[in-house]
Amino acid sequence: MPTLTLITSAPSSDAAYRTDLIRRYLTAADEFTELALLAEAARYDRANPGAALYDELIGAGLGDVA
């Protein structure tokens, strides 16, 4: 099982990180992986104020419903 690493400051490519996390969330194999990615997004949001990555994951998971 892959381990998740907390990023405590904005990565050099914030957009690339956000896109990758959303991609991993949408392709997660099970709900435990989804929860781990949501937790990673919440930690990222606390360390990097601004547009909430957690909310982006939830919205992306809703698909056409959102």
Task: Please render the helix and strand layout as text.
Elements (H helix, E strand, L loop, with lengths): L13 H13 L4 H17 L5 H10 L4
Helix pairs in contact: 1-2, 1-3, 2-3
Would you write up a description of this structure?
The N and C termini lie far apart (31 Å). The protein has one domain. The protein has three helices and no strands. The chain has helices spanning 14-26, 31-47, 53-62. The chain is mostly helical. The mean pLDDT is 83. It is 61% helix and 0% strand. The protein is globular.
State the main characteristics.
3 helices; 66 residues
Number-wise, the strands total 0
| Count of alpha/pi helices | 3
How would you sum up the major sheet? Answer: none
Distance between the termini: 31 Å
Class by SSE composition: mainly alpha
Helix content: 55-70%
Low-pLDDT stretches:
none
Tell me the radius of gyration: 11 Å
The backbone outline, from C-alpha atoms, is globular
- What is the averaged pLDDT score? 83
The ordered H/E elements are: HHH
Approximately what portion of the residues adopt beta-strand conformation?
under 5%
| Domain module tally | 1
